Amino acid sequence: MSHIAEIIAVGTELLLGNIANTNAQELSQALSALGINVYWHTVVGDNAGRLREAVEQARRRADIIITTGGLGPTYDDLTKQTICRAFGRELVLHPEIVAQIRARYERNLHAPMPENNIRQAELPVDCVIFGNPVGTAPGCAFEEDGVHVLMLPGPPFEMRTMLEGYAIPYLRRLSQEVIVSRDIMTFGMGESRIEELLRDKMERMSNPTLATYAKPSEVRLRATAKAESVQAAEAMLSPVVSEVAAALGDIVYGVDVKGLEYACVSGLRARGLTLATAESCTGGQLAARLTAIPGVSAVYRGGVVSYWTQVKADVLGVDAGLLDAHGAVSEPTARAMAEGVCKVTGAPVGVSVTGVAGPDRDERGVEVGTVYVGLATPEGTFCRALDLGRRRRDILQNLAANHAFDLLRRWLNGLPLSI
Amino acid sequence: MSHIAEIIAVGTELLLGNIANTNAQELSQALSALGINVYWHTVVGDNAGRLREAVEQARRRADIIITTGGLGPTYDDLTKQTICRAFGRELVLHPEIVAQIRARYERNLHAPMPENNIRQAELPVDCVIFGNPVGTAPGCAFEEDGVHVLMLPGPPFEMRTMLEGYAIPYLRRLSQEVIVSRDIMTFGMGESRIEELLRDKMERMSNPTLATYAKPSEVRLRATAKAESVQAAEAMLSPVVSEVAAALGDIVYGVDVKGLEYACVSGLRARGLTLATAESCTGGQLAARLTAIPGVSAVYRGGVVSYWTQVKADVLGVDAGLLDAHGAVSEPTARAMAEGVCKVTGAPVGVSVTGVAGPDRDERGVEVGTVYVGLATPEGTFCRALDLGRRRRDILQNLAANHAFDLLRRWLNGLPLSI
Predict the structure, then answer these.
(1) Per DSSP, what are the bridge partners of residue B390?
(2) Which tens digits make up the pLDDT trace of A10-25?
(3) Which among B44, B286, B303 is the nearest to A40, CB-wise?
């Protein structure tokens, strides 16, 4: 039997636009992976009447209702009593949970539990209790008339923790099949060209399926298989992933890899090399993306953000005459920046980016979108010259950084360096 | 008369969790500012039956319905015909819009317009046409039986552009009053302490109102006034903003300022100074946050990401003996990094951050959350020593960067340097 889910997010702050409903997105991904169709997202405020209406409309069209929010201790936290009224179920106080909440206040906040929080220990009779190790409000689940209702907290970190720890196991028991996906990550070819190459294949496939998702110059191909077990699904996916990777060739930078920088870090580890970065128009993005990766200090020494031309000379040692002759945004400068950062940091590999991110041309009249990426290695220095076109500044910065990571991962993997 | 709005986002990718519904958030903010209550968000897939159900349920409870998505050229773009069927309005082909779309394809993509795109030039009879200068699909609005329906594109940049250019002016004509807010931005005091200081004031206020929004150690106070005109609302807000800023003192870093780094850039401009950054555990975040600000090259020279200890010595010139004696995460090192980056870049002002972001202690056993922020200036070198506690790595990095910006903006404004 195919389940249909509706996600109801409770919270006036969502309707005021103070925050985006990221909980619904994360829940939808999780439900999708469990083979459960999500047909509706609803957001309603901290209002008992409208929340009741949302629950009533949901129970007519879905057999799994998941709510987020409204489990707090204050008077406008209404989820439990509204749902219990709708389903005719009583709320029961759990003294052991009161004790847990009291202990949490004393341990973490060194303060007595406000009496309001007792409400958080009231739960529907005969429910499955979902513990909350990172907050005070437990969640819960119960079934009534063929409809499963799950109540989760609103704060995203608490919701995510309870989703992983309790909600997914609960839902897994409802589902007869699993959905497993694998993402083939590519950089350097547009979505339409990729679809041309794979159209015949994609149209013939019904399980697994293949879908493309495009970001500026990055295209992710998701292969998705439905089966009775994770192992069976993975066995269906393996040959598909291999065929697609073979068809697309060098533009594939990884499977289930979070981004180009992750591919670079793996490549550096595999070859026992360390890296330094020298960036101008990307303003710190190369460094920030690398240092977000846990354990990256094994392969990343650091870098220089040479925003001013003078800093390219003073800190990276780029020859002042070269800068005068060719300008800050040029191939010789990109090469010199990459070689310079290797010299000053001792890293064997250096990546550089210099370009015009806009909105204006640079002081020499170089056009917006002109970018040079340099790569200094023990085998020589390379450069990729780019015209990324007139785009938004933040898109140009991101794209230039992607090109820098792409040049590096191609060299690390012995692939042709040009796209 | 008070309007009630419902936002319907159309798109299966939202229900699969591929993206978050940021359009609903942005629309809600805009409607809020116009004095229009948003009571419902609904997300439905590219399915005519369920989209029809969503529209029917919305027209029973809202008098403004705004849809996003489903205006594309493919067979699963269903918004216009579904809404027109629901409201009994015909679709009419606009040849001048066909011509515009053709021209757009030729000019930007150097390709002929696919014939599918003709559907995008069909619009409800007698509607107000919303042009789309950054995409191919025009939007539209019409009124039927007291209900206003607005249809906007799904891609967020197109939605946002059409919202500003067409939808907001359309809605402004419906609304009798305006809502204006001003955000008082603070750093360094917790939300509960701020609420204690202002509780009496906040409870007495009904128009304007004052609300607090907390992020890790940043608290934003939003003063909101409802009036018949923007000028009247602003006149109501001025004294409130002054009183709150006076009550809170030095922790206020700006009003309607996007972040601490913006306050720093303004301060540097005002004092005619330039800045360089030296960062370790923040890994490029200081530089990236600064270089995201348009025009920052007037005050920011660049910086060094000295991720490895050796790089602090080799690039920043921190004395090796000092590093040996005190370690990379120490007050002397923070001071030396700030002074060092000034020397190597020529900047009169330098900011540094060194710390342990986790999840593990550093090689000397320094605890997670230990951070030193250095500030080198023509008036001397200063340091803020912090114990930020055991938190998630990304939260610690963000908090450490905030402290660096806070130390700088206090010095720039002649305020006491410690919190």
Answers:
(1) none
(2) 999 899 898 899 999 9
(3) B44
Contacts of B164 (CB under 8 A, 6+ apart): none
**Domain around A114:** 4-172
Total domains in the fold of chain A = 3
CB contact under 8 A, A40 and B43: yes
ipTM for the complex shown: 0.81
- Contacts across the A-B interface (CB distance below 8 Å): 213
User: Are the Cβ atoms of A40 and B42 closer than 8 angstroms?
Assistant: yes
pLDDT at residue B1, as a whole number: 64
Domain membership of residue B130 (yes or no) is yes
Q: Is A405 on the interface with B (CB under 8 A)?
A: no
- Residues A215, A333, single domain; the answer is no
CA-angle at A42, arms to A60 and B8, nearest 5°: 110
CATH number (domain holding residue B331) = 3.90.950.20
Q: Domain check: are A308 and A274 in the same one?
A: yes
For A122-154, b/e burial (b = at least 16 CB within 10 A) is bbbeebbebebeebbbbbbbbebeebbbbbbbb
Please report the pLDDT score of residue B216 as a whole number: 62
Residue A27 touches partner B, C-beta closer than 8 Å:
yes
Position A8 pLDDT exceeds 80: yes
> Does residue A406 sit in the same domain as residue A266?
yes
Of A151, A172, A193, which one is at a domain's C-terminal end? A172
Nearest C-alpha of chain A: how many angstroms from B165?
18
The strand pair at A218-227 and B218-227 is best described as unpaired
Q: Which residues of chain B does A26 touch, with a Cβ-Cβ cutoff of 8 Å? A: 17
Domain shared by A115 and A153, yes or no? yes
Query: What whole-number distance in Å separates Cα of residue B83 and Cα of residue B96?
Result: 23
pLDDT value of position B332: 98
Same domain, yes or no: A272 and A391: yes
